[in-house]
Amino acid sequence: MADLYIYYQVREADTAALQGAVTAMQAGLAQRHGVAAQLKRRPQAKDGLQTWMEVYPAVPASFPAALEGAVEQAGLSAWIAGARHTEVFTDVISCV
């Protein structure tokens, strides 16, 4: 299992449309894959752009492909300025 952190920028004028699309996409992913998705953004904008982040904790190895398909189907690229950047983190397990 891994945690996915996906960040990207959105023009302030497009935030309402993007929020609706991402929220609907995440609801579908939660229903189909049982993920507990989160949507966050930085509190400040810079040069008319906000930075947003989708968080998907504890997802199986097969989830990134499902997410990619959902992003394409939701048409998120219409509102995103630039690329989506994905970071993957795993738990650190201590051997005590």
TrEMBL record:
Domain of life: Bacteria
Record Pfam families: DUF4936
Name this polypeptide is given: DUF4936 domain-containing protein
Organism the protein comes from: Rugamonas rubra
